[in-house]
Design a protein that fits this description.
Length: 194
């Protein structure tokens, strides 16, 4: 008599290539499993000549956030550590492959996205000095072009511009395009982000 049983073993899906994609997948999972209002927010602002980064994850009655970090990767990595310490998000090992953890600092976004984001922050900082804030929000909604929203608020609320896109790169490019008249006005010359 053979007591061996066939066990169903599905392969574990590969983790997302970039840490940002892992965050998008995690927020999508929270949206599907827990609350349709799940949202990830990045914040960039100047502080004594240095750009500081913050990140927040909110869904339902929950909100976790970090601030005053010195980089994109640090803010997102620290946010995940805080979320993981306070919440059991993933229900299965397969779902847990989405976790935004274990990414090296240079594996959070692709080079073209990093370039656009870095240039947007740099131009904004050059033009508006210490009087600006940038926000990027990600919500896993069905209309892809509205999933990422980017906003610039500068000189109090004298300058308020927005952009959107299906990707982080697209949203930042769209915001730059929409803010170009303000960059020209406040800096006196056109700056291009390619």
């Amino acid at each position: 008599m053979d007591d061996q049983k066939t066990q169903e073993k599905r392969p574990i899906p590969p983790r997302p290539r970039w840490g940002w994609f892992a965050w998008e997948a995690t927020v999508g999972y929270i949206h599907d499993e827990y609350s349709p209002d799940a949202m990830l927010t990045l914040t960039m602002l100047p502080s004594a000549g240095v750009v500081t980064w913050g990140a927040a994850l909110q869904w339902g009655e929950h909100r976790e956030s970090v601030r005053d970090r010195v980089g994109f990767a640090i803010a997102l990595g620290d946010l995940w550590r805080q979320v993981a310490a306070s919440h059991q998000i993933f229900k299965t090992l397969e779902a847990a492959t989405r976790r935004p953890e274990g990414y090296d600092d240079d594996n959070w976004v692709d080079l073209s996205t990093l370039d656009v984001l870095t240039r947007l922050v740099g131009v904004t900082s050059t033009v508006f000095k210490e009087e600006w804030m940038l926000f990027v929000t990600y919500r896993p909604i069905s209309v892809s072009n509205y999933r990422l929203q980017a906003r610039l608020v500068a000189r109090g609320v004298e300058v308020v511009r927005a952009g959107r896109g299906a990707t982080l790169r697209d949203a930042c490019r769209n915001l730059y395009h929409n803010a170009t008249p303000d960059y020209k006005r406040y800096y006196g010359q056109q700056m291009k982000l390619s």
